[in-house]
Amino acid sequence: xxxxxxxxxxxxxxxxxxxxxxxxxxxxxxxxxxxxxxxxxxxxxxxxxxxxxxxxxxxxxxxxxxxxxxxxxxxxxxxxxxxxxxxxxxxxxxxxxxxxxxxxxxxxxxxxxxxxxxxxxxxxxxxxxxxxxxxxxxxxxxxxxxxxxxxxxxxxxxxxxxxxxxxxxxxxxxxxxxxxxxxxxxxxxxxxxxxxxxxxxxxxxxxxxxxxxxxxxxxxxxxxxxxxxxxxxxxxxxxxxxxxxxxxxxxxxxxxxxxxxxxxxxxxxxxxxxxxxxxxxxxxxxxxxxxxxxx
Length: 295
What we know:
The chain has helices spanning 2-11, 28-50, 59-79, 86-109, 115-122, 141-160, 167-183, 198-226, 232-254, 262-282, 284-291; strands spanning 127-128, 131-132. It is an all-alpha fold.
């Protein structure tokens, strides 16, 4: 990120003059209501926390419901607006199934910080020539793969050009591969503590990364391309709401994980993800029609 910011700073002088003047997204006449709403939100959260309604054990479930409500409101505001054209409205409709698939993907992917961490602590054999690798180091495996494979995927998409698959197919492939990654835990399932091979988990996290790179980099681009002219920020917000929903769902699902019944847990969730991906493939044609030219 530091390197990227340095490149931007050095090359900023080559950008058009219009890019140096960013309009304030919050007009002066809207600042007071927004500040008031923010303060009211903070007070509400404080009251709910102090009264025990908003407790740690319910937090993930509460976030899931709040995120779903927020997403519905965002979609309703955009789709009911008279400021968008017929084509723009169709494109927003096409984003709804992508939103759902994105949430399903992240609900599995983000479990590397919950279930996979617990799995690594209790089931993984972290002994390397007599030295036990810390559990926390497992979280470094995926970022290393991301840095390596990002270059590979960028080269592949650039090389393919117009021959690369449309975005719905990439989304479908991403969630299917994520489902396969969960199924790969099944051969390593065991009730014997610290018996799962380290290289096996490394391989699973490699598949995690492949799935991520099929969805994560293209999702932001998709959101901006499908966004109506007057709702660019809101569409990007919807994308991040799908990630928030998936992340919260990962927390909810993690409560059902049991070391004694790993096959059922990984098998059911992996199977559901694969089915979701297949359904998206089946409906790719009508979705692309709604996308109105956006790939």
